[in-house]
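Deviations from the work plan: none for this task. Representative record:
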Amino acid sequence: MPEIKILPSILAADMANLERDTRRALTAGADGLHVDVMDGHFVPNLSMGPAVVAALRECHGPATPLHVHLMITDPARYAEAFIKAGANTVLIHIEADGDIPATLQAIRAQGVRAGITLNPDTPATAIQSLVETKAVDEILCMTVHPGFGGQAFIAEVLPKMATLRGWDPAIDISVDGGVDRDTAPRCAAHGVNIMLAGTSLFKAEDMAAEMAAMRADCAAQLGTGT
Ligand code: DX5
Ligand code: ZN
């Protein structure tokens, strides 16, 4: 399984102080930044657009991984704008409209990692052919119904993570929603290597300590040391 990474979800940052908070996250040891894009249609909330990704790219330079999660109905229409803005990874939902394999291919064709996301109730089999044909670089398992930060982790998704890991030992598998120091190691034990966490990190008293503890607890769970 690939190495454990932790990416704070900036949805939980102070939007009036996004530069300060994202610097704080990166200084605290974040492996990149997770950016949640919501269109008010695929999910009942609105959030950020390509301008925010461009601003983060400008602010943090070319080396900071920007992980863009499109919770939007029509990803084919907007993916390119996020790539132009500086995304390194673009994740779309299998439940979205349009030709999903073609959209993933178009994302990769622009030199960017392509990810597929599953809502909590969507079975692993919905993306089996994408995994078997190596059409994606990352699989994102939602452990909340997307749209809002600060929701409770849905533990029923854990077996799906293990199923996906069984299909591909090398692929990146991420988890998003209610990820904290308690739930992250459980996800790691089920094959997840990328932890996306908003509230638990940005609202922590000491983000660096929280992230270090999460990393250590995941490593301990995997038996790979501290
Ligand atoms: C949910 C978003 C998540 C969210 C996670 O729709 O995709 O990335 O920010 O927030 P927490 O960690 O607070 O559940
Ligand atoms: Zn997200």
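The beta strands are 5-8, 33-38, 66-71, 89-93, 113-118, 138-142, 172-176, 194-197.
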